[in-house]
User: What shape does this take?
Amino acid sequence: IMEEGSMGWHCRRLNESDFVLVICSQGLLQNQNHQSEDEEPLENTASAIVSTIGEELCRAKALGRDLSKYMVATFEYSQESDIPTALGLASRYTLTKDLPLLFSHLHGVALQKPGVYLQVENISESGYCILPAGAALQLAIQEATA
Assistant: This one.
């Protein structure tokens, strides 16, 4: 990051990535809307990255490219208004309710086919909390809700 600068590093990583998942919350929008007066616009990395992703989404749409690289996730306590308008073209998921759908998106597997329903171990709305990382996520969500 020191060699490229923060924005250069983030832009390179965005181009190298197979998927880009932006977790949206009230904090993201507050970060975007409440820059201090002495702060340069590009010093607010989160805001600049959201704008860059939004530009990439618009460019991909205009060129007829696949938009599935870009996804937005919110938590169940979040609101639709927590998603920046720049990310309006991205696929949307609500965690933890849509965890199986997000898994399907990332791995390119259909969860349902005629007569078949794919059940992935520990990737259900309730099953993920069996794993340590899932339990930690569930606790963080409960604390944020409170």
